[in-house]
């Protein structure tokens, strides 16, 4: 099992593909055992991809201490170093985008180009959906709550008009094969605690590498207004919209090629 000792913790990782070096930082609750993941999509055909289970999650170490966003960012920087890389292209999705912001601010030499996908800066720029407030919801109840938020087109009227598709989304959202593993609940809770206090707003102008903000038009988690504020706050950042909600990377087939094109610009 590939494990890197990074920033004082053992982090499980996978690496595959060929091409420019790309670090992919996953979202809330990310676990590489969940399929499909980044290695199953088109990015794996264009990049040498490194992805990992963040501390407290998946097959990585789960220290029972408070986690900070700085810890997650330092983990990411250490993962880049663990492969013998000096620097990398970076995609951060959702919570991973929060980590990626901290990474680019704390370790600017490690990030050559950055895609911030369906994420938020916190502070005056606007926070992402407060997942810590629904931590008590489990299974189908949580899935039903999140479906119309993840994609604002999927409201009650849509659910009634598309019962079979709605039932499929509920089943997919409720599935969590690893929820009962030792340490899972603690690690997930620690991540939510760090997420709740995330705020890079005042420091965003310090991000010096080229940045693409990638967002779904119907995302109720990382709001469109927040994406616009981030794009205006980061010097030279570009904002690109895609058809979909929080999962636009799966919903819009043009998303991955557009992100790849940005990352490989000379």
Question: How would you explain this protein's 3D organization?
Answer:
It is a single chain. This protein is of the alpha/beta class. The chain is 35% helix and 17% strand. It is built from nine helices and eight strands. It has an eight-stranded mixed β-sheet with strand order 1-2-4-3-5-6-7-8, with helices on both faces. The N and C termini lie far apart (35 Å).
In short:
Helix 1 (69-82) packs across helix 2 (95-106) and helix 3 (139-150) packs across helix 5 (163-174). Helices cover 35% and strands 17% of the residues.
Mind summarizing the main beta sheet? 8 strands, mixed
**Radius of gyration over all CA atoms, rounded:** 17 Å
β-strand percent reads 15-25%
What is the spatial order of strands in the main beta sheet? 1-2-4-3-5-6-7-8
Which word captures the global form?
A: globular
Q: So how many helices?
A: 9
List keywords for this structure.
single chain, 266 residues, alpha/beta, 9 helices, 35% helix
SSE layout and pairing:
Elements: E1 3-6, E2 9-16, E3 21-25, E4 48-52, H1 69-82, E5 88-93, H2 95-106, E6 111-117, H3 139-150, H4 156-161, H5 163-174, H6 184-196, E7 211-216, H7 224-233, E8 238-242, H8 248-251, H9 255-263
Parallel strand pairs: 3-4, 3-5, 5-6, 6-7, 7-8
Antiparallel strand pairs: 1-2, 2-4
Helix pairs in contact: 1-2, 3-5
């Amino acid at each position: 099992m590939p494990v890197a000792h990074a920033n004082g913790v053992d982090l499980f990782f996978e690496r595959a593909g060929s091409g420019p070096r790309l670090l992919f930082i996953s979202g809330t609750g990310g676990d590489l055992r969940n399929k499909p993941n980044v290695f199953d999509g088109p990015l794996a055909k264009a990049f040498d991809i490194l992805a990992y289970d963040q501390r407290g999650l998946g097959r990585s170490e789960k220290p029972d201490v408070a986690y900070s966003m700085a810890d997650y960012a330092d983990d990411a920087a250490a993962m880049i170093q663990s492969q013998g890389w000096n620097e990398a292209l970076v995609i951060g999705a959702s919570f991973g985008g929060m980590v990626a912001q901290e990474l680019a601010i704390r370790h600017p030499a490690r990030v050559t180009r950055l895609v911030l996908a369906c994420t938020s800066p916190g502070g005056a720029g606007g926070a992402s959906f407060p997942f810590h407030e629904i931590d008590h919801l489990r299974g189908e109840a949580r899935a039903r709550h999140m479906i119309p938020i993840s994609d604002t087109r999927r409201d009650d009227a849509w659910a009634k008009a598309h019962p079979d598709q709605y039932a499929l989304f509920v089943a997919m959202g409720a599935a969590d094969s690893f929820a009962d593993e030792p340490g899972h609940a603690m690690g997930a809770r620690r991540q939510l605690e760090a997420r709740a206090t995330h705020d890079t707003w005042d420091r965003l102008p310090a991000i010096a590498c080229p940045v693409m903000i990638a967002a779904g038009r119907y995302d109720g988690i990382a709001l469109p207004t927040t994406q616009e504020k981030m794009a205006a706050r980061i010097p030279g950042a570009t904002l690109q919209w895609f058809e979909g909600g929080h999962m636009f990377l799966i919903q819009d087939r043009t998303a991955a090629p557009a992100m790849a094109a940005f990352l490989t610009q000379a």
